[in-house]
Amino acid sequence: MKLYNTLTNKTETFKPIDKDTVNMYVCGPTVYNYIHIGNARPVIFFDVVRRFFEYKGYTVNFVSNFTDVDDKIITKAIEDETDEMTVANKFIEAFYKDAERVGSSTKYLAPRVTEYMSSIISYIEQLVESGYAYEIEGNVFFRVDKINDYGILSGRKIEDLMEGARVEVNTQKENPLDFTLWKTTETGITYPSPWGEGRPGWHTECVAMIHEIFGGKIDIHGGGIGLIFPHHENEIAQNRAFAKHHIANYWMHNGQLIIDDKKMSKSEGRVVLVKDLDYDYMGFRLFTLSTHYRSPIEYTDETLKNHVSEWEKIKRTYTQTFYQLDLANYLDTKTHPDNKLKQILHRFVEAMEQDFNTPNAITELHNLVKYTNQKLRQRNTYSDLRAALEMFDTFFKVLGLRPDVQRLTQTDRAIYMAWTDARKNKEFDKADRLREKLLEKGIL
Ligand SMILES: [Zn+2]
Questions:
Q1: How does DSSP classify residue 57?
Q2: What is the mean pLDDT of the chain?
């Protein structure tokens, strides 16, 4: 298994810390709004990462947080004339609904900042005690120049960062690069701390949660490319100070979603919300996975539509196969793939093992469709069709695609029998009517 590590800028062989386990953490959303299709990209991609590791036999401990304490949530609460928790709860629920829609699992540990406040405060306290952080009038800052390799993840140099930081005037900080761990404030929801009533800065929650949940170094830390600097850089710096080691062995970052030549963002340009997509969500998932996760995705309505109809074709072949086997009472028979199918599977797995090359894996899904369509046109191919169906199920499980096909009902079977009888008896009008019905249900 090879994956590209942002920390070393190299494609590396994956070696887990514990033989059969993958411990991974992905930065989750700040819950003050509905997610757009760009936000859905890590939700889909890292779900596939988890699925593939599970396919390979690993136990995956997948954690992704909710930032439920933040200035944006406070602003939203004021706007809506409600409190922060109502806003956070509403959008956490909406997030789960959207994740479900796009086919991603929601059954993982999702810690909230409000639940980990004491861990976050004690984490900051230890940084202050060890001299890596300092307090000035109720605000706590991290001393960036105590970390020798600050900039290691983003490849930025302290001198260049200083150049950029000069515009920001904060007379409290010893160094313009120092970042906030705690801020004292009277606006919005606040929490008691050794430095007064206030709120934690955004960069500490993930490291404090990882420390609390995993108790040490994790295998994979993931997130969107936009988080590399400063968020992930600051996570690394804090953990270096706190635990004297890197927080994660592998850093994985997904690219952005581009719309009208700009990154899709809530603050500018056109935004398409996941909940407003008027297509089969599996088509959207296929669209997202058809670009390699590290490359940007260029979104247009046209390309999305193309993927939606591609998904319909895949689904049609799957459904027909399923029903043919069901009608022949062949669904519960176990068969073995022929060499051609074995090669398709081999190339699929190989693609996924090469830094999660989902576009190549999807090419194999299309090859499987071609293979199956050929078999559907031939006679006496139940055994091959049964093996193909099982392979579809494997690919769907890894990619998180759901065809939603149920076994035939008694009525469906009765219509099918009536259709074959009508054909036998040359009752062509009747046969045509029944055929229409069967086509409508996707049985033919
Ligand atoms: Zn984070």
A1: T
A2: 95
Domain-located, residue 209: yes
DSSP secondary structure string for all residues of 168-210:
S--TT-SSTT-EEEEEE-SSS--B--TT-SEEE-TTHHHHHHH
Distance 341 CA to ligand 1 centre (A): 41
Residues 6+ apart with CB under 8 A from 164: none
Tell me: do 362 and 217 sit in the same domain. Answer: no
Whether residue 266 is found in the same domain as residue 216: yes
Beta bridge partners of 109: 63
Are both 60 and 178 inside the same structural domain?
yes
Question: pTM here?
Answer: 0.95
Q: How many angstroms does the Cα of residue 31 sit away from the middle of ligand 1?
A: 14
Based on the fold, state whether residues 350 and 208 are members of the same structural domain. Answer: no
8 A C-beta contact, residue 64 and residue 218: no
* Residue 45 structure tokens: 């991609």
Tell how far the Cα of 283 is from the centroid of ligand 1, in angstroms: 29
Same domain (yes/no): 76, 196 = yes
Structural domain harbouring 91: 2-277
How far, in Å, from the CA of 289 to the mean position of ligand 1?
Answer: 23
pLDDT in tens, 335-384: 999 999 999 999 999 999 999 999 999 999 999 999 999 999 998 899 99
User: Based on the domain organization, do 395 and 419 belong to the same domain?
Assistant: no
Are residues 73 and 30 in contact, defined by beta-carbon separation less than 8 angstroms? Answer: yes
Residues 263 and 392 in one domain: no
